[in-house]
Amino acid sequence: MISRRGVLLAAGLTLLPSRAVAAPSIVKPLPATDFILHGTNAETRWEALRDTGSLTPVSKFFVRNHTSTPLLDASSWRLRVSGSGVSRPLSLSLRDLRALPSTSVEAVIECAGNGRSFFTSQQGQSVSGTPWKLGAVGNARWRGVSLGLLLRRAGLRSSAVDVLPSGLDAEYVTGGVNLGHVRRPLPVGKALDDVLVAYEMNGAELPVDHGFPARLVVPGWGGIASIKWLGSLEVSSSVLHSPWDTDYYRLLGPSYPASGTLVTTQVAKSAFELEWDASVPAGRRVLTGRSWSPDGVRRVEVSTDGRTWRRATPVSRGAWTRWQVPWLATPGAHVLRVRADGQPDESPYNTQGVSVRGGGEAPGHGALVTRRNSSSSASTEPAATV
Ligand SMILES: Nc1nc2c(c(=O)[nH]1)N[C@H]1C(S)=C(S)[C@@H](COP(=O)(O)O)O[C@H]1N2
Ligand SMILES: [Mo]
């Protein structure tokens, strides 16, 4: 009998030498068993989450970098809080930040473009941006200082309307235009609600790729709000803008106003912990997966025949819900589908391929249902291809 350790070792030996890939923009190792690379970004493979708990291990957490992970010097780093919306500007060292009362929150961070590739593969529409499948999402426990607490320490004025967090990574240049540091305004209302200036992820120091020494965590909002490598927070009594709210992460297209509609909160999504076009042995199987939504997840349903839906059983509830459902897999090709809380089949078209609830004109629509497209199995063993 082969021991579990033996199995792991054998797997490691066969997989590591040829498959560990480094994207120059990302510091942590990106083994092909865990990640799909898209330029400067790395997408988590859902099958790699099968044997993990509710929190996404840092080693498997997706990375979305506009440029490259900067290596910042923690001893000279400062977080500046200033602007017309505060009366006592702050300049905090990491030590200062760590000395303030801390809180921790379990929160999903999901790129607003997660699922974008399905606009093309399932809806036949062409969209711009990284062609993520469903792996531009992760769940972690973040510890840090409440943004509300920081703003109050800085003497937040009642006239303040917007906070503009800015990253210390390289300025973003696209199409020959320098758009400056990655930054996106956040309304004071949300800033005072549940936003964290985080310096810990899953109980350890924030990893460099995820924003060391500190990042924002904006629960429920598209990932762009959670600015990494935070250097400054401009608090203003007048409305602030950046290309990341005027040009990017807006719903644009025929059914939206000419200037588009701002993307803020995410919508319910679900995924199976399976590779795409997975082949599994025929027989009794247990399908596992996760569903998440800023509004919380109440009901998860799975379809294995394309027609009927059954309730999945929750395995754990947290910032996302893990679930399972038994399946008698017969040989042949199958399409597996999952939906949480009535996720619709289609997402309304927008040029940037953001799956959100419509900008007012399409109430109730928004999320993409996970499907596993059928394909024929090349295996001679009886197999179910999903
Ligand atoms: N400074 C900075 N912050 C950033 C980004 C970036 O490129 N630079 N990318 C944003 C986007 S689009 C997403 S989806 C999340 C991704 O967070 P992660 O890389 O920790 O998974 O970070 C956001 N914060
Ligand atoms: Mo993103």
Account of the 3D structure:
Residues 66-244 form the Oxidoreductase molybdopterin-binding domain. Keywords: Signal. Residues 341-386 are annotated as: Disordered. The protein is mainly β and 386 residues long. It folds into two domains: 79-248, Alpha-Beta Complex (Sulfite Oxidase, Chain A, domain 2); 269-385, Immunoglobulin-like, CATH 2.60.40.650. 11% of the residues lie in helices and 31% in strands. The chain has six helices and 29 strands. It has helices at 4-19, 94-99, 117-121, 147-153, 188-191, 243-246; strands at 20-21, 30-31, 35-38, 41-44, 79-82, 90-92, 103-110, 137-146, 162-167, 173-174, 177-178, 186-187, 196-201, 204-205, 215-217, 230-236, 250-251, 261-262, 269-272, 279-281, 283-292, 300-303, 310-311, 313-316, 321-329, 332-333, 337-340, 370-371, 383-385. The protein has a five-stranded mixed β-sheet with strand order 6-5-16-9-12. Strands 7, 8, 13, 14 and 15 form a five-stranded antiparallel β-sheet that branches. It has a four-stranded antiparallel β-sheet with strand order 19-21-25-24, with no helix packed on it. A hairpin with a 2-residue loop joins strand 10 (173-174) and strand 11. The radius of gyration is 22 Å and the shape is globular. Bound molecules: ligand MTE and molybdenum atom (MO). Residues 61-66, 109, 111, 138, 167, 169, 182, 210, 223-224, 226-229 line the site of the ligand Nc1nc2c(c(=O)[nH]1)N[C@H]1C(S)=C(S)[C@@H](COP(=O)(O)O)O[C@H]1N2.
